[in-house]
Amino acid sequence: MPGLLLAAVSLLLSYxxxxxxxxxxxxxxxxxxxxxxVLRDIQRKTGxxxxxxxxxxxTAGKLSFSVHxxxxxxxMDSILGNLPIYYRLIHKSINVFPGSMVWGQVIDERGQGVxxxxxxxxxxxxxxxxxxxxxxxxxxxxxxxxxxxxVSCVGYGSREYRVSGAQELRVQLARQAGELGGVVVSNGFxxxxxxxxxxxxxxxx
Length: 205
Prior knowledge:
single chain, 205 residues, alpha+beta, four-stranded antiparallel β-sheet, 13 strands, disordered N terminus
């Protein structure tokens, strides 16, 4: 029954007109407040409705935070921190469910951060994915627990993990033999090693 209810809510929201976060900014400071009180305050300030699983209230406990001039998504990320709680913005609503939180860094065999590596669940949810920054760091919220995670990057082998709760990962990827090793790519301004160049490249000839 809960699954049918959530499906019905999502279907209903999909027919509502879309709203943009543009122009909506939040400034909030709180000490030792519950998650439902936080969402109630966001609703009052922005007009966003919310759907909240009561398990998330217990998981969050008492929250203390400070956000200034933040979008709704930025505010939610700051408020939840590393808590294993998942949220998704659907039109003008905040949907909050139990989940997993994973963060960390992807490195190569020399211990250097790997930029633009992909971290995603392997069971097909396109919204549960992210890419690493220039230092190889990443953060990703996942719906549910015990989720299969794949870490991959062009020119490297992939790694697979199972993620539950709040978990930090340090992922080392090994370069695949024959995959652009030693290739230098010119972007018109400078010559870069292939592993530092963004985009896809193929060897000609």
